[in-house]
């Protein structure tokens, strides 16, 4: 299963940028000024600027491409969290079936979040910003089910590492939503 997921991610990393960057906009290509101007319209300016500055493609990106770069960061976050949870599932003791079920549900929810973000890439390519917005909001909401699953099970506590990952994904999604707002759909 791990090799299948790795192959899928590899194929997506090769296909998505080609699909995305073939779509040219009439916006003026930006630089760091565009990044800062765009990020000022998001809830998490520092996260936005630092994330975009860490990607070499950002300096030549237009606003739509900045959103796509942030979506890619969100996909990576959701995928890494799903893998993290799956690895903890494998390490869970055999007699702790409740924990295994919760970890499996959580890994699935983060996988769904990644899928929703990938769907938003397609929406962005078709300039269906309303659908992209919807998929990004769904991606931000999927981790809630993980937190709730831990709460529902007596004796289980929501691990701080998962809580931090949940917050990070939500913040990334909020940044993307702010950038989409700039596109003026």
Automatic annotation (TrEMBL):
Pfam family, one: PMEI
Keyword Disulfide bond applies: yes
Domain Pectinesterase inhibitor positions: 30-179
SMART domains according to UniProt: PMEI
Keywords: Disulfide bond, Signal
Signal peptide range: 1-22
Keyword Disulfide bond: yes
Family note: Belongs to the PMEI family.
UniProt name for this protein: Pectinesterase inhibitor domain-containing protein
